[in-house]
Amino acid sequence: EAGVTQFPSHSVIEKGQTVTLRCDPISGHDNLYWYRRVMGKEIKFLLHFVKESKQDESGMPNNRFLAERTGGTYSTLKVQPAELEDSGVYFCASSIRGYEQYFGPGTRLTVT
Amino acid sequence: AQKVTQAQTEISVVEKEDVTLDCVYETRDTTYYLFWYKQPPSGELVFLIRRNSFDEQNEISGRYSWNFQKSTSSFNFTITASQVVDSAVYFCALSGLETSGSRLTFGEGTQLTVNP
Predict the structure, then answer these.
(1) pLDDT per residue as tens digits for the range A9-38
(2) Does A89 touch chain B (CB under 8 A)?
(3) B80 half-sphere exposure, CB direction, 13 A CA radius
(4) Degrees (nearest 5) of the Cα angle A103, A107, A108?
């Protein structure tokens, strides 16, 4: 069974540009989460989808971040416009019931 | 608010030594889950264990063992006879079902280096 996949693995963009990160969860997992780790700090929650609905988006830092999950399958996280402080590793996770979340390899975003 | 503290930023040991990674948590929830994840150099987060707040039994899985103590709000992780392949960043995490649902609150991680 394929695990959680994320694309791209690494993205380098300039401040002010737009970047879209993609996450493909494990097939059959209704729950999808986004997290990020900035500057070697703790991994912080961004938001949680149940199928195509946003269950909890309390961790989204501001309105430059837009997450979607079309048809309850893959999800995208768009950052527009990107700022320097957005640099970090963005993780996606999926789960069946929420208690055991399986993480992808992450996307390392560098904003210069 | 929920919080997870991993006071050890980095630990370095020699192969075959035992090592304990500390995790202290704060939550007002009575029902919560505690987790450990491993992040090897390849970058993905690998699930290791989940414990619920009503089960304080210690658990052993091969060379790994976990000590959950509600009295001290700790969920420590011990690796016995460490190996070079154990080198990774280890994260402790918490989800409090009453206040935060299934979202995870992570500690800052402990970088473990096992030297040959």
Answers:
(1) 999 999 999 999 999 999 999 999 999 999
(2) yes
(3) 7
(4) 130
